[in-house]
Amino acid sequence: MHSTMILLGVLFGLLCQAYTLPVKNSTGLHEAKVRLRRTYSGGISNEFTDHDHDDMNAMDQILEVNRRLRFLRGMSFRDGDIASSYFRSAITCPGNACLWPKAVDGFVYVPFMLSPIYEDMDRITIETGMQDITAGTCIRFVPRTQEASFLDIQPRYGCWSFLGQTGGSQTLSLQTPGCMWSGVAAHEFMHALGFVHEQSRSDRDHYVSIVWKNIMADQAHNFRKQATNNLNSPYDYNSVMHYGRYAFSEDGGPTIIPRPDPYVPIGQRDGPSNLDLHKINVLYNCGVN
């Protein structure tokens, strides 16, 4: 009888311990799935991808397309989509040597060649990206005739551009269909005009916090600040040149948080913001507001 009571006591104690064990939280599981959905930020693929597509800005789309660019032979990429063998910004290059020249009529003509591989809708998308810039600036994209320096727009792998005018034929890649957003085209054209990403500005720490612990270890270099001339222009959360909130995320957590209001939207995909156009006008001395 005594041994039976002891056994019942042991069993009762085990049952009590079982009831005190933590239960797997379904809310936590849901949050984990939400974090995994950020495919375009950290390169995590699963069945939730399509649901986030409407939330993507231009840079998010570029990073999604460019996930394997680091493996291309003979190409060096910085900040996700800037192709170069060395880093330079037309905003800081000595004597504005990286800028496209201004003609005597006050316009800046940027000659281009468009690959015949593009279909009609691709051409319309790319030309819309051009028009979104020319509509508010003195920049004019013109078909190349005999100009020595020009943009060679090709549907290569990924969305990328060299920074500023490099001289001669310079490739600007807009892969189809991945890069066929007019906002993505405008983003790459702004690189070709000499602009770095908005969160690379020298004064960015006043406006955003970089969450270094959430960034993929081998991608932290993409968040370095540059010694930019900010053209006496306000920081632009709405710039088409701004990274998304989850760019290069390790596990889906945010890598960029606006300050002081963390809920301010950053980046967009529709095309250059008013401040983007203003900065082009200032950089190229367009003489218009």
Describe the protein:
- The protein has helices spanning about 1-20, 25-35, 40, 60-65, 120-135, 180-195, 275-285, and strands at about 75-80, 80-85, 110-115, 140-145, 150-155, 160, 170-175, 210, 255-260.
- It has one domain: 3-Layer(aba) Sandwich (Collagenase (Catalytic Domain)), CATH 3.40.390.
- It is built from 7 helices and 9 strands.
- Helix 5 (about 120-135) crosses helix 6 (about 180-195).
- It is globular, with a radius of gyration of 25 Å.
- The chain has about 290 residues and is of the alpha/beta class.
- The strands form 3 sheets. The protein has a 5-stranded mixed β-sheet with strand order 4-3-5-7-6. A two-stranded antiparallel ribbon has the order 1-2.
- Its cofactor is Zn(2+).
Order of strands, main sheet, comes to 4-3-5-7-6
The secondary structure category is: alpha/beta
The average pLDDT score comes to 82
- What kind of sheet is the major sheet? 5 strands, mixed
**Corresponding CATH architecture:** 3-Layer(aba) Sandwich
CATH superfamily: Collagenase (Catalytic Domain)
Number of strands: 9
Number of domains: 1
The Rg value, from CA coordinates, equals 25 Å
Cα distance spanning the termini: 97 Å
Percentage of residues in strands? 5-15%
Q: Given the C-alpha coordinates, what overall shape results?
A: globular
Quote the CATH topology: Collagenase (Catalytic Domain)
Q: Spans with pLDDT under 50 lasting ≥5 residues?
A: 10-51
Helix content: 25-40%
Discrete helix count: 7
Sequence of secondary-structure elements: HHHHEEEHEEEEHEEH
CATH class: Alpha Beta
